[in-house]
Amino acid sequence: MRARERWPSRSFRWLWAASATSLLGSEIGELALPLLALLTLDASAGELAVVRVAQYAPFLVLTLALGVVVDRMRRKRLLIAADLARGVVLTAIVIAALTLPLPIWMLAVAVFVIGTCTVLAQLADFSLLPAVVPNDRLTDANARLTSTQSAMSIAGSGVGGVIVQTLTAPIALAANAATYLFSALFLTRVTAVERARNEAVDRVSPWLEARAGLAFLRRNRVVRDLALEAATWNFASEILLLGLTLHVTQQYDLGPAILGGLLMTSGAGAVLGALVSARATRRFGYGRSLIAASIVGNSAPLALIFTAAAPSAAALAVAGVALALSGFGVGLAGAQAVTVRQLATPDDIRGRVNAAYRFLSWGMIAIGAIAAGFVATAGGPAVAIVVGAVGTTLAIGWILWSPVRKLRGLDDAVEAR
Fold first, then answer.
1. pTM for the whole thing?
2. What SS3 state is found at 152?
3. Which of 196, 344, 373, 379 has the most beta carbons within 10 angstroms of its beta carbon?
4. DSSP label at residue 310
5. How far apart, in whole angstroms, are the C-alpha atoms of residue 27 and residue 157?
6. pLDDT of residue 3
7. Within 73-205, where are the H helices?
8. CA-to-CA distance for 38 and 103, rounded, in angstroms?
9. To the nearest 10°, the Cα dihedral for 54, 363, 414, 291?
């Protein structure tokens, strides 16, 4: 019986396998792409920021339009198409990096295409899960997916760091490409009960449909406040990450491996947080546990301020503990926030509301990347770490006095519609 509770259906198992595989590759790529720019292409801090902007700009400029696409088409098909496209484009980057002088602008264009596919995949994945498992199993399913995401963050960061250190960044990106192709294969085995679209709805202007998602986000304080907290955190975290990447690769001989190890500690904390998420929810309710976890996760990076001055083993130890605590809080809160958003949003506009959420929250990563480039260029990696850590802490303010704290169970989340 316990096994069945953990694995709601065969289709969920295939969906989980696809998610785990693509997440592993994404984490390898998340580490390998900036290191490809820094170490293989000898990019400056400003050029690295350009690559990061290209990676996340689709969240800012295409999310709303792709949200309409997700609500008009079969989400499973969109997921498969997005994985196949990402695999092909990454393969092209690898071939170009190994055989040609790859200019930064060409890498940025390719990364923009990959980012577009990532937007599509995330929107479709969010909306597909409720079609694979019933509402009363969403908490368990999301907790399992979130803990898997965190576990893949550990594995991907570690594997990516080792591959880059020993075999170079292009080889790490080749491994990333392979994971997307396997993910697409696993998705073909998923059976989802997706609602058929009303043809009359398809004749409505896509812009009006996109506005419906924004309007729901604006009206629903629970979803809106979660989006604003995530947007602020993502903006500041991007500055923090760029500062940390530059600091570690410039100050330590085994920079890529050390950076991968630090990110692994964050992933380890996130795994633990996701695993205790359901227990925390049952004991304290969604709201209280989510806010408490966010306070821990958002403020822990402040400790990184004291590690950015000079390289040392003690500084790395403090950084590892800080990132582990941050990962724990973010992992615990993340599993709960996804379930709340899914249940607080009607199915027929779930894709568009999630698109509006991603537009606000993930779109700020692109803006954060621009800000990170300016901060790191003007003040150096240490200043970027300070600015980023303070910013992630301030993000808590959006939910401290929000209706989110009053949520107790699934019924409260549904009533939040």
1. 0.66
2. helix
3. 373
4. S
5. 6
6. 39
7. 75-99, 104-132, 138-167, 169-187, 199-202
8. 12
9. 110
Per-10-residue mean pLDDT of the chain, 417 residues long, equals 52 84 84 79 78 83 79 83 92 86 85 90 79 70 72 70 77 89 89 57 59 78 86 91 85 76 81 78 77 90 83 84 90 79 74 78 82 87 91 90 68 55
Cβ-count burial 26-40 (b if 16+ within 10 Å, e if not): bbbbbbbbbbbbbbb
Task: Give yes or no for a contact between 348 and 219, defined as CB atoms under 8 angstroms apart.
Answer: no
Residue 66, token pair as written in the block: 């792709």
Q: What is the pLDDT of residue 265?
A: 84
Domain membership flag for residue 118? yes
What domain range includes position 22? 9-188+201-415
CB-based contact 214:228 (threshold 8 Å): no
Residue located via tokens 């199915």: 347
Looking at the 3D structure of the chain, how many domains does it have?
1
Burial class for 223, CB neighbours closer than 10 Å (0-12, 13-18, 19+): buried
Q: Burial of 154 by CB count in 10 Å (0-12 exposed, 13-18 middle, 19+ buried)?
A: buried
| Burial tier of 305 (Cβ tally within 10 Å: 0-12, 13-18, 19+) | middle
CATH of the domain at 181: 1.20.1250.20
253: number of Cβ within 10 Å: 7
Q: Tokens standing for 219?
A: 């009206």
Q: What is the DSSP letter of 133?
A: S
Tokens 């606000």 map to which residue? 360
Distance of alpha carbon 251 from alpha carbon 300, whole angstroms = 22
d(CA 166, CA 333): 35
Given this model, what pLDDT does residue 2 score? 41
Q: Which two tokens stand for residue 358?
A: 């991603």
Distance CA 266, CA 264 (A): 5
In a domain, 3, yes or no: no
Please indicate, yes or no, if residue 337 is contained in any of the structural domains: yes
Query: Does residue 369 lie within any of the structural domains?
Result: yes
Residue 16 one-letter amino acid:
W
